[in-house]
Amino acid sequence: MNIQKLKFSHFRNYDSASFSFEPAMIHVLFGRNAQGKTNILEGIYYLSHLRSFRTLKTGSLIEHDEQAFSIECLVERKTRLEDLRIYVEDHKKRLFRYGSPVPAASSFVGIVNAILFCPDDLNLFSSSPSKRRQFMDMELVKLSRTYTSTLSHYQKLLKDRNAALKAFHPDSLLIETLGVQMAKEARILIEQRASFLSLLEEKANEVLPVFSESAETLQIRYKTSVETDSENLEEALLEAYEKSIKKDKQTKNTSVGIHRDDIEFILNGKLLTQTASQGQKRTVLLALKIGLAKIIEEKSGQYPIMLLDDVFSELDNLRKAALIASLPKNMQVFITTSEELSPALFNRPVKFYTVENAKMKEGIYHVES
Ligand SMILES: Nc1ncnc2c1ncn2[C@@H]1O[C@H](COP(=O)(O)OP(=O)(O)OP(=O)(O)O)[C@@H](O)[C@H]1O
Prior knowledge:
This is DNA replication and repair protein RecF. The protein has helices spanning 37-49, 105-108, 129-143, 145-166, 172-211, 233-243, 245-251, 272-275, 278-300, 317-326, and strands at 2-11, 14-20, 26-30, 68-77, 80-89, 92-97, 100-101, 114-117, 218-223, 262-267, 270-271, 305-309, 333-337, 350-356, 359-362.
């Protein structure tokens, strides 16, 4: 998948700007801080996810003193060229494909498939389990339609069960019936999550050796309230609900289930959060993102677009070169950096751009600070 053209209108610090990009090439966006490099990545990410990775407030994406923004792109998917446009005004989003309105966001999300690495992602390992579930769900939703519909049905059932637990006189039969339906959906979700994580572990381990002189191995464990290899997952889940029913009635909340699950990362046999250095966490995260791109390519026949925001800080020259070497050759990549990089670091065609005050020019220009 390749973005051929991108156009911003009143998006962040871009009043009106058009960009052209090359297929399957690394694009390095160089420039001083606060010039608009990350805003370009944010625009591409927005096309992919219909939300920003930096803010939940859509209004802050509109250029100051303006009322609306739009992002347009021409994206090449396999042999097809998609013409997409997003127009956002007053929290209202309008989506267009080839100029015709797209009524459902779910039919728009994923036409552009972008994977992002940004410095905040490093919190994945130390933040709450919900962030790790979000990481897993976000990717599974893009990979499987069954996962999307099953997850949304499970979430509805969970909401209904919690409402039933909150009732003045909780209806035990209703709670039990909802539990039976939840267990059915949870089994499908657990199986898909566990197999996704095992594939991700395999792919990340293919990439990891490129980054380090010593052999490193990563294990990714799905932590759920029941044994994932248990013969009858549904029964095991029902037992878990039954065991916790007294507590659930007291707290008026469903305390066990896949909405509480977590992922454990183990590097060289030790819990990653307890022993890994910042550099190791960064390389594991990069291996996960590249592993993810490989899974997407295997499932869909095309690589996603890779957005690497400020990826080089804290990486020594060896690791920088290793990162570039590990990027699949036919993947379109965007890298932002405020440090000047030698073209010798790159083992494949690369285009350098300088971003200054919301203007992007080809080449590297030294700007007086
Ligand atoms: N809604 C907005 N309207 C106008 N300008 C904005 C808006 N939001 C952010 N900006 C401006 O965009 C610039 C920040 O852009 P961006 O985050 O892309 O920086 P960057 O070049 O990636 O810098 P760094 O290297 O520090 O990450 C700042 O000058 C900021 O004031």
